[in-house]
Write a structure and sequence with these properties.
17% strand, 1243 residues, disordered N terminus, single chain, 35 helices, alpha/beta, eight-stranded mixed sheet, seven-stranded mixed sheet
């Protein structure tokens, strides 16, 4: 029989004799084991490499880091650095553990009291990175410090000690960092031994452009498809590689002149050649030398590098207030030998006095030596209230602040590698807007001698124990952000009280690559549910780790489930669950889930803490009912710029285009055929009907080709899968892989060149020449011939053969963790032997799917002109090919075996051939178009849609989120809530008041009419149109005003109303006339895979069809219409019956003997019944439903000058709040002892 793939030449299996493929072996040697370890490490750091680059990760693996101080900031910094691959960490802090240390250090517990902090932390830190060396220093001396790459002092320390060690480090070429948290303030000081050469100041991808033209020294460029249209960096160099035969590219500096056109630059006069049109113009970043002041100099606050980082975007110069306060505290410690005591007003007075002396000294210095020598304060001078508050809590290390500054400081450690812009001098942060106002009574802030003492000193015992402790919160996601949130909640006592509860939901399981940023997980957790492992580590880690419980009092319930519409009906998160919550904290990585949770929070009026990270950037958004806008109202996250399909199909010009194309081919070869085969087995008629419809609806030859390819691929899959012997299946799969190579890289290119020859030109509809077709971003391609010596060729054959064979059951599927899978079938020797026994398929021309570019037609002058396509001949040919395949599918009775399974693309397994295929396929494509090749790691990042993620950003973001939680619980106003963005790479820390509530109000607009339609009296003496003649339109909002949080609450029994009763209530209670109700009833999936919501009309009721009135199916259509007219049906009613008649007639099976009874009209259905039957809504577990889709009007009364009614008309309500229908009585907000219908099986 025939086996074919995507229209490639068929292979007669009976006529081809293939020796059995080599059997697989699990043999391995030491070199193989070393390679597997290398690959394992690469996979582990894949997300980090996406953000920092492999070179930075390699630098970190060789770094020697010393951290002095193991309270909250120190352990956070050590944790982050180990997760990011620091090779050697030495810690020093012999201070005995105090019970309150467990409030900020997650690796300490009350059982560690009196032990040295460093000794207690060392084995627990070492678990985070088994490849790193973690040691405890006996003492800090010059030999130890001088041997380090970087030294970090964490926490409040003696000023003289810090200055001395900073001076020593500057002389030894050792980077020096000091990071500390003082209550609701934090600071980091950085000095990379005087100067640091940075090779990449922003970490962004180099800009890429396409050379459009060169006119003299003016180069015009265009933005490639799929690339953001950002401005070019004027400080960078640019490189043009325009001729593959030349070893040396063109390299020049950016320059321009005033008045130059957009998207252009000037070329230097000394270039030996001009860049060619279509060449790539790529940015080459120039190294920048950063210089640093010493700590002693920076404490004075002067100099150009001491106060670069702006963290106060309210322009109140809070950074300077923090600096003066910190200097005052350091002076206090130098004089008293201790930091100021918490909430001690006498100590605060002394710190204030010190700060005043400092401010005065700065003023004197600036007057004497010129402005800028020392810190300059704004006109308001020193803020005494701020300094006092700073002093009261300077000795308190709050866990959220420690988490934040630990992330910031750890990123500064990473910058030792010369990646990203370092902080030069101090960066100061203030969060005093989170202070409770007024402060709690002094007695409430007294220490209790437990882990919460520092938090109690700021917020009071009542807030910590009674409020935070008894919160019921929902943490959605337990990945990188989720792990940090679990830690933060546990250490702050959130949900740790007798009535507290934290529910964690996550459907994912732990993978190796998670371990570099999800610090609660260890290698023995790989494969376990994330939510379960995170909860276990928080309260009872067990014997496989030496980490102590973070807080055994945390009341945590893990759920292994996706949070979305499906879990509403599975008994996991029913309405009683949402109603009891005090708030929701998102730790998600996808927009669909974010929007769903946002909608639930609007429905149940719950606060939402939203955050996210992307590489070194992050965001924090507090969302509070009736105070702020919602997440959805804040706008969609910026999507990556889309690549037009014609670019991917026929005109790639970037390596990423080739990778994306290869990723699509993965689905085309290894996913779609198996799914179609399984669908064919389950529903043969339906499958054939769909394929018939595709070819019938084909608008051109390209569409018909796609349908024929799909039909032939299905036929090939069924036939191969039906073979009995695995050896036969593998033989067929090898030939199919060879066919695929020629179809993709030979035949498709030949088809394209036939349609668009090298001399093709473009002319408009009037015949005017618009230039060469192959110009700009269009690269003229070259077809490939298989060469077993070319790496990308034989790798494609190897990967494709194995993946096809797995898909059809020709070989065992790779087991997770099996790094020796097909170990002897991966090299060039094996591929060469395989290729020698395969047949090269003949070329058969097919259509090109590029309708937007036209087709080619030969002219008499030897050139080719692009004109409107006339592909009727190819359309007929491809339609006939599809018909032949469909006819054979109709005849066969083959059923695929149970082991026919689609491949699920898995980017984090380097031995499953998935990324191997994408890389090889992309490079074969790139070779066709003379585009630069990709490598395995870059292909994985692009094809796997890997989001750059690092531990430092995750930690910093989650610390800020918890501060917002405190404010929300304290019911602070919008002016205290902060929407924040952070950029750890570029030192970007803007924060603004949370987005205000979006309110809908009734407005009136006036539109100028067409003057030609107006009478003469409509104009005044100057010819202007009088106001009375302007077209006025009222845009009504109801209620006026209202927000997305507003709801029209219907009475308790409204669920049992008829639609007419709902209409009556809207009229009586709100003065609204119900004009229509369209109820959402689900979604449909478009051909491009996007989901689109669909709705059904409820009101006015739709006429139902009585099947007994359907005419005889033997009638012709005109006679059927006459029969319906005789039955008294007219207009839309008749057309509805006629459509039902046509449906039964097309089925060809006659009317069923037992005709279904007429559907119940929505006019006779209760709202509850409508929601279930028409809305396809499962009401089990629901207690409230929001009725959207209501359209109403209301009376608009125009009044005269005397305020008397003149005219009354009905106007549509443009913005209408939804109606809240309660299906059963609400549960109390808090009911922790009640096992309601949410179900015990939730946990």
């Amino acid at each position: 029989f025939r086996v074919c793939l995507g229209g490639a030449t068929t292979l007669d299996v009976d006529a081809v004799v293939l020796a059995p493929l080599p059997t697989m072996s699990a043999a391995e040697d030491d070199a193989d084991a070393a390679e597997r370890r290398r690959v394992r490490q690469k996979n582990k750091y894949s997300r980090q490499n996406a953000a920092l680059g492999a070179e930075t990760t390699k630098f970190l693996s060789k770094m020697r880091l010393l951290v002095v101080g193991m309270k909250g900031v120190g352990v956070e910094l050590g944790k982050n650095c180990l997760l990011q691959g620091v090779g050697s960490l030495t810690i020093y802090d012999p201070t005995p553990v105090a019970v309150k240390d467990a409030g900020s250090n997650f690796f300490l517990s009350p059982e560690d009291v009196a032990k040295p902090r460093d000794v207690a932390c060392r084995p627990r830190l070492a678990e985070l990175n088994p490849d790193a060396s973690v040691a405890v220093a006996d003492a800090i001396d010059e030999d130890l410090v001088g041997s380090m790459t970087c030294v970090v002092f964490a926490g409040l320390r003696a000023r003289d000690e810090l200055v001395r060690w900073n001076k020593f480090c500057r002389g030894k070429g050792v980077s020096f960092i000091w990071a500390l948290g003082c209550g609701l303030a934090a600071s980091v000081f950085v000095d990379h031994h005087g100067e640091l050469l940075v090779h990449d100041v922003d970490g962004e991808k180099p800009s890429v452009r396409i050379v459009e033209s060169v006119e003299g020294d003016l180069l015009r460029y265009a933005v490639p498809d799929g690339v953001p249209a950002t401005s070019l960096n004027t400080r960078s160099q640019y490189v043009v590689q325009d001729d593959a035969a030349r070893a040396e590219p063109l390299v020049f500096e950016y320059s321009s002149r005033e008045g130059d056109p957009a998207n252009s630059m000037r070329l230097p006069a000394d270039l030996d050649r001009a860049p060619k049109s279509g060449a790539l113009l790529t940015e080459r970043k120039r190294p920048v030398l950063f210089t640093f002041s010493s700590l002693a100099e920076s404490l004075l606050g002067g100099g150009s590098s001491s106060f670069e980082v702006m963290t106060d975007y309210a322009f109140t110069e809070r950074e300077k207030q923090v600096h003066a306060s910190l200097v005052g505290v350091l002076e206090f410690e130098a004089a008293m030998g201790r930091p100021p005591r918490p909430n001690d007003e006498g100590d605060a007075d002394q710190v204030l006095a010190n700060a005043k002396h400092f401010a005065e000294a700065c003023r004197v210095a600036n007057r004497a030596a010129g402005d800028g020598v020392a810190l300059e304060f704004c006109a308001g001078g020193l803020d005494e209230t701020f300094v006092r508050a700073f002093a009261r809590h300077a000795a308190c290390e709050l866990q959220p602040v420690a988490t934040f500054i630990g992330g910031v400081a750890a990123q500064e450690v990473v910058k030792c590698a010369g990646k990203y812009s370092p902080v030069r001098g101090f960066a100061h942060f203030s969060f005093q807007e989170a202070l409770p106002t007024p402060p709690p009574p002094l007695a409430d802030r007294a220490p209790r001698e437990d882990r919460y003492d520092d938090l109690v000193a700021v917020y009071g015992a009542h807030f910590v124990y009674e409020v935070l402790g008894n919160l019921e919160y929902f943490l959605v996601g337990s990945g990188a952000l989720g792990c940090e949130f679990v830690k933060n909640f546990a250490l702050c006592g959130i949900s740790c009280g007798p009535r507290g509860k934290l529910t964690i939901a996550d459907a994912d399981r732990i993978e190796l690559s998670n371990l570099t940023r999800q610090f609660l997980f260890r290698e023995h957790n790989v494969g376990q549910p994330k939510s379960v492992a995170a909860a276990t580590m928080a309260v009872d880690p067990g014997p496989r780790t030496c980490a102590p419980p973070m807080n055994p009092d945390l009341k945590v319930t893990p759920v292994e489930a996706f949070v979305g519409p499906t879990t509403e009906t599975e008994g996991l998160f029913w309405d009683p669950f949402w109603e009891r919550l005090d708030g929701v904290c998102n730790a998600l990585d996808n927009m669909e889930a974010r929007f769903y949770v946002d909608g639930q929070c609007v429905k149940f009026e719950k606060p939402l803490l939203e955050s996210g990270t992307m590489g070194t950037s992050g965001n924090v958004d507090p969302i509070v009912p009736h105070k702020t806008r919602t997440y959805r109202q804040g706008g969609n996250a910026a999507d990556q710029a889309g690549v037009p399909m014609c670019t991917l199909r026929n005109f790639p010009h970037l390596t990423d285009h080739c990778v994306e194309w290869a990723r699509d081919k993965f689905a085309e070869l290894f996913v779609s055929p198996a799914r179609r085969a399984r669908k064919f087995a389950a529903d043969k008629k339906g499958t054939l009907r769909d394929l018939h419809a595709k070819v019938t609806k084909a608008s051109g030859a390209a569409d018909a080709t796609a349908a024929a390819n799909e039909a032939e691929a299905l036929l090939a899959t069924l036939k191969v899968a039906s073979l009995n012997e695995a050896t036969e299946k593998r033989q067929c799969c090898a030939q199919l892989a060879f066919n695929a190579f020629h179809a993709f890289f030979r035949d498709q290119i030949l088809d394209l060149v036939a349609a668009y020859p090298a001399n093709a030109r473009v002319k408009d509809k009037d015949g005017r020449d618009k230039g060469a077709f192959w110009s700009g971003h269009k690269r003229f391609p070259t077809p490939a011939e298989f060469d077993p010596d070319l790496e990308h060729h034989w790798q494609f054959l190897v990967a494709t053969t194995h993946l096809l064979s797995q898909m059809v059951g020709g070989q065992p599927r790779k087991a997770e963790g099996d790094d020796s899978y097909a170990a002897n079938e991966r090299d060039k020797r094996w591929a060469r032997d395989l290729a020698s026994r395969l047949s090269v398929p003949a070329y058969e021309r097919k259509a090109v799917d590029a309708k937007e570019d036209g087709a080619a037609k030969d002219d008499n002058d030897g050139t080719t002109t692009l004109v409107e396509s006339d592909d009727a001949l190819l359309l007929r040919s491809e339609t006939a090919r599809c018909a032949r395949a469909l006819a054979e599918l109709e005849r066969i009775d083959l059923q695929p075996a149970d082991d026919v399974q689609p491949e699920d693309f898995e980017k984090d397994d380097d031995y499953n051939f998935h990324v191997d295929f994408v890389a090889a396929c992309a490079n074969c494509r790139a070779a066709n178009y003379a585009i630069a090749f990709t490598d395995h790691e870059k292909a994985k990042l692009t094809a796997g849609r890997i989001v750059p993620a690092i531990a430092t950003t995750t930690a910093a973001v989650t610390g800020l989120v918890v501060l917002e939680l405190f404010k929300i619980v304290l019911d602070m106003p919008n002016t205290s809530l902060r929407t924040r963005q952070i950029g750890l790479g570029a030192n970007y820390y803007p924060s603004f008041d949370a987005d205000n509530l979006v309110e809908h109000r009734t407005t009136e607009t006036s539109t100028r009419p067409d003057p030609s339609t107006l009478p003469a009296e409509a104009f005044d003496d100057k010819g202007a149109i009088k106001g009375d003649y302007w077209i006025k339109e009222t845009n009504v909002a109801y209620p006026d005003p209202h927000s997305v949080w507003t709801k029209l609450v219907a009475p308790e029994d409204a669920a049992d109303w008829l639609p007419s009763q709902l209409a009556a209530w809207l009229a009586d209670a709100h003065g609204l006339t119900l004009t229509a109700w369209n109820l959402a009833c689900g979604t449909v999936q478009d051909e491009d895979g996007k989901k689109r919501p669909v709705s059904t009309r409820i009101y006015p009721p739709v006429e139902v069809v009585d099947a007994s009135k359907i005419p005889d199916l033997t009638l012709t259509k005109p006679k059927a219409m006459m029969a319906l007219q005789r039955a008294g049906l007219r207009g839309s009613s008749m057309m509805k019956y006629l459509a039902e008649w046509q449906k039964y007639k097309d089925q060809g099976q006659g009317l069923p003997s037992n005709l279904p009874p007429p559907e119940k009209s929505t006019a006779d259905m209760s709202i509850r019944e409508i929601l279930q039957v028409k809305g396809n809504l499962d009401l089990k577990g629901r207690r409230r439903v929001l009725l959207d889709g209501l359209s109403c009007s209301m009376r608009n009364v125009e009044k005269n000058a005397a305020d008397d009614p003149m005219d009354v008309d009905e106007v549509d309500v443009e913005k209408l709040a939804p109606v809240l229908i309660r299906l059963s009585p609400q549960v109390p907000l808090r009911n922790n002892n009640d096992d309601d219908d949410n179900g015990k099986n939730n946990h």
